């Protein structure tokens, strides 16, 4: 359920997206708020400026949360973002422990507005293979002390 407080913070994320465009960057903005609604961090897309395909604001905030917040605090945060996070960002959000995401545009809505947003090729993957060899580092790392 999205509250009036959520909508206010979502508008701030949309404003970050607008400011991103004004700076020549892609139109995506995000912020991370604590349980009390205080903004802890915010960012916008800098893929073009940084020449870095991972410079999505959601991923940058997930990294920040994982680095700066303890798991309990991270679990109480909410990310507000102008568009639904992509698969790369969703994975980072999950791993960071962020508790909730509120987004303005869905991926489907974004693709309707900009069809090129949905034109990502698929990448062939082959495997699994070499199980006995590949398990060595895993067994060593996760072996109980």
TrEMBL record:
* Name the record gives this protein: Nucleoside deaminase
Query: Which CDD domains has this protein been placed in?
Result: nucleoside_deaminase
Task: Please list the residue ranges annotated as the CMP/dCMP-type deaminase domain.
Answer: 4-121
User: Which organism's genome codes for this protein?
Assistant: Streptomyces palmae
Pfam families named among the record's database cross-references: dCMP_cyt_deam_1
Q: Which GO terms describe its molecular function?
A: catalytic activity
Domain of life per record: Bacteria
């Amino acid at each position: 359920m999205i509250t009036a407080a959520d909508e206010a913070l979502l508008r701030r994320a949309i404003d970050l997206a607008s400011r991103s465009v004004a700076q020549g960057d892609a139109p995506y903005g995000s912020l991370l708020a604590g349980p009390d609604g205080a903004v802890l961090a915010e960012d916008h897309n800098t893929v073009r400026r940084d020449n870095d395909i991972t410079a999505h604001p959601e991923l940058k905030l997930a990294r920040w949360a994982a680095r700066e917040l303890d798991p309990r605090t991270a679990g109480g945060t909410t990310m507000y973002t102008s568009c639904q996070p992509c698969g790369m960002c969703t994975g980072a959000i999950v791993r960071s422990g962020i508790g909730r995401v509120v987004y303005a545009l869905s991926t489907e809505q974004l693709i309707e507005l900009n069809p090129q947003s949905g034109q990502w090729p698929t990448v062939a993957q082959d495997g699994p293979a070499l199980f006995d060899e590949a398990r060595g580092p895993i067994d060593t790392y996760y072996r109980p002390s």
